[in-house]
Design goal:
Helix content is 21%, strand content 48%. The protein is α+β, with helices and mostly antiparallel strands. A 12-stranded antiparallel barrel has the order 1-2-3-5-6-9-10-13-14-17-18-19. Strands 11-12-15-16 form a 4-stranded antiparallel beta sheet, with no helix packed on it. The longest helix is centred in the N-terminal third of the chain and has 54 residues, at 4-57. It is elongated, with a radius of gyration of 34 Å. The N and C termini lie far apart (91 Å). Keywords: Coiled coil. Residues 96-106 have a biased composition (Low complexity). It comes from Stenotrophomonas humi.
Length: 428
């Protein structure tokens, strides 16, 4: 016969074993719940990626897509696992912690790509985009002028003059971009300029210590540009999204030819030593045509972009092309053609902010002028090489509005010393 004390010990041992089994089963259940929840999240992410690729291949706008359907029992387990189970260390690396975060991350990446495309070419999935921008540019040029000759290879006899031109310009630009279809977008850019230029000339009156200075201003509408963007290829595999751009610029601004000049200083023989335009021009005075190609490629987490193009200027006749304010000489002007190219990279910091860095360059050939019934002559010093380093920050204000800031640093003497631009495109 078993004593009561022995029976109690056996019952206690049995209960302890059952509790250990229950704890082990509970731990196993929690691990299975966490694993199942992770697999459901991965299925949802893969489903959204497949739908996004299908929409892009079909040329449709990638809309916010609903997650893959899950049975009610699986949804209940997933919710319970998300609340009770903790993610094991080292698991879930590279995945969002929930389907909402996965969708948010995907929207952020797509928004960053859209912002880059908006600045480089156009967004073809928007019916209408209105853009307001303000830019500021600073120029400062100094030139030493020697009018004389060297005596005994060491002594300069003549006049030494130092010329300095400082220019500040502010441009407001209103742009409208209308998407006709998933491949074609029409654009219209209307700028309004305000310029201030200070001319300084050393050696006034033949004295090296004397400096003459004059300040002139100019405001008005600039040259209006109408253009179109056509998407040649969508992004697929190694191939970037490629867009062809063509446009025409009309000479709606005030041309730099035939402007009234103010004479600041004359020599004894009535030779004009220092004269400046009474008003600053707001355009280049000729019709221009532009043809370019741009490409955007996503390489997670970076976005690569590049562009190249050519600007052709058509010759035009003017009533006066002479810089001498005392004479009027009609003639023709033909600006040199310009090649431009650039490339850069952008990174998305979060769902709202991205940073870009790029280089752009514009090479312009010499201009030519011809007086009436005369021969064409090249204008010395009219060729240019304007290289700029650009740093940009983009911030998504709302789902439809974006704030873009851009700092340009001139790398060559023909480029602005620096420029600063702010844009707010609003997508309807």
């Amino acid at each position: 016969m078993v004593s009561p004390s022995v029976a109690a010990q056996e019952a206690k041992a049995s209960n302890s074993s059952d509790e250990e089994d229950v704890r082990a089963l509970v731990a196993q259940l929690e691990a299975l719940k966490a694993s199942y929840a992770q697999e459901v999240r991965r299925l949802r992410e893969l489903d959204m990626q497949v739908q996004a690729i299908q929409a892009r291949v079909g040329g449709k706008t990638a809309q916010a897509m609903a997650p893959a359907s899950v049975p009610p029992q699986a949804a209940a387990i997933t919710a319970e696992a998300a609340q009770t189970a903790q993610k094991p260390a080292g698991t879930g690396e590279g995945y969002a912690s929930s389907a909402a975060e996965a969708q948010q991350a995907k929207e952020a990446a797509r928004r960053s790509v859209d912002d880059v495309k908006q600045q480089q070419s156009a967004l073809f999935n928007r019916r209408l985009t209105l853009e307001n921008s303000v830019s500021y540019a600073r120029y400062d040029r100094k030139q030493l002028t020697l009018n004389g000759f060297l005596a005994l290879d060491a002594i300069f006899l003549g006049n030494i003059a130092i010329e300095n031109v400082e220019s500040d310009s502010v441009t407001y630009n209103f742009a409208a971009r209308w998407g006709l279809n998933p491949r074609l977008t029409l654009n219209l850019d209307v700028p309004y300029l305000a310029r201030k230029t200070i001319y300084q000339k050393g050696g006034a009156g033949g004295s090296a210590a004397a400096i003459a200075q004059e300040e002139t201003h100019g405001t008005g509408i600039g040259d209006v540009t109408a253009s179109a963007n056509y998407k040649l290829f969508g992004e697929r595999g190694w191939r970037p999204e490629t867009v062809l751009t063509g446009g025409v610029t009309a000479p709606t601004g005030r041309e730099p030819y035939g402007l009234d000049w103010k004479v600041i200083e004359r020599d004894d023989d009535d030779f004009i030593r220092f004269a400046v335009p009474a008003k600053q021009p707001t355009g280049n005075g000729v019709w221009q045509a532009n043809l370019g190609l741009s490409a955007v490629k996503t390489a997670d987490p970076a976005i690569l972009f590049a562009n190249v193009g050519y600007i052709h200027s058509f010759k035009r006749s003017f009533d006066d092309i002479d810089s001498n304010p005392d004479t009027i000489n009609p003639g023709e002007v033909k600006l040199g053609g310009s090649y431009y190219f650039g490339a850069g990279i952008a990174f998305a910091f979060n769902e709202r902010t991205s940073l870009s860095i790029s280089f752009s360059d514009k090479l312009s050939a010499r201009a030519s002028t011809r007086y009436k019934d005369g021969k064409w002559m090249k204008v010395i010093g009219s060729d240019a090489n304007a290289g700029t380093l650009n740093l940009g920050v983009t911030y998504a204000l709302t789902s439809k509005a974006t704030f873009v800031s851009m700092l340009g640093i001139g790398l060559t003497p023909d480029a602005p010393d620096f420029s600063l631009a702010f844009k707010v495109p609003y997508m309807l």
